[in-house]
């Protein structure tokens, strides 16, 4: 006889994106469609990145934590880390984490150019620097956006990813191939080619 598993306390938040967004205040919910990863995408991306138990997965620009929190729900044997430059988003990510009761998620308030990627095994990137380009949707008006920042953040990211060993996994969402460093090979794609899976050779 198969014993059905009991629903977890957190299950109700993962019924739909709409329900998940109730973890956040209104202004964060209103940004979701343009800026936060849908649950179905987070599930596919985290399934790819959580290749072995205990791996450390970094979301590069984690916003209010939607990718990390949903990844941690779908893949509880992996550890999820999010780095985010905006203090308010880290604050609400941490509150959502506490409401969900997850202990395999850590949020870091910092600019990614101060982070050493050697601490992490695999990476998720939802075109985080894009709002620096003219004519794009911004999360808020609190930062100085510039093409210079877009280029320097991308350079730092490529440099860090290039230093990672063979076997490193990268999932990109809404990114062009030019943003992926040499040495990473496309091994799969999903969601109309918007979500791409890469492994370093
Ligand atoms: C498109 S949102 C994605 C949020 C989250 N990864 C998700 O998928 O739901 C990109 C986030 O990256 C953050 N970000 C952009 N540049 C950053 C930097 N240099 N350091 C840290 N965070 C950054 C932005 O503040 C924003 O919250």
From TrEMBL:
Q: Record's InterPro entries?
A: Methyltranfer_dom, SAM-dependent_MTases_sf
Q: Gene3D superfamilies of this UniProt entry?
A: Vaccinia Virus protein VP39 (3.40.50.150)
Which species is listed as the source?
Chitinophaga agrisoli
State what protein this is by name.
Methyltransferase domain-containing protein
Tell me which Gene Ontology terms the entry assigns under biological process.
methylation
Q: Which Pfam families match?
A: Methyltransf_31 (PF13847)
Q: Name one GO molecular function term.
A: methyltransferase activity
Which key words tag this protein in UniProt?
Answer: Methyltransferase, Transferase
Where the record annotates domain Methyltransferase, the positions are: 52-118
């Amino acid at each position: 006889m198969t014993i059905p598993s009991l629903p977890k306390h957190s299950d109700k938040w993962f019924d739909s994106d709409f329900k998940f967004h109730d973890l956040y205040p209104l202004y964060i919910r209103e940004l979701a469609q343009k800026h936060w990863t849908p649950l179905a995408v987070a599930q596919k991306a985290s399934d790819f990145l959580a290749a072995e138990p205990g791996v450390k997965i970094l979301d590069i620009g984690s916003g209010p934590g939607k990718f990390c929190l949903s990844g941690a729900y779908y893949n509880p044997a992996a550890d999820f880390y999010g780095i985010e430059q905006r203090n308010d988003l880290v604050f609400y990510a941490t509150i959502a984490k506490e409401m969900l009761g997850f202990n395999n998620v850590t949020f870091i308030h910092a600019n990614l150019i101060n982070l050493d990627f050697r601490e992490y095994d695999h990476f998720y990137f939802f075109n985080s620097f894009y709002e620096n380009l003219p004519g794009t949707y911004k999360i808020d008006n609190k930062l100085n956006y510039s093409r210079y920042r877009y280029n320097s953040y991308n350079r730092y990211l490529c440099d860090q990813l290039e230093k990672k060993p063979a076997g490193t996994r990268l999932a990109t969402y809404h990114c062009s191939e030019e943003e992926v460093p040499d040495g990473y090979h496309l091994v799969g794609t999903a969601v109309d080619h918007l979500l791409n899976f890469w492994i370093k050779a």
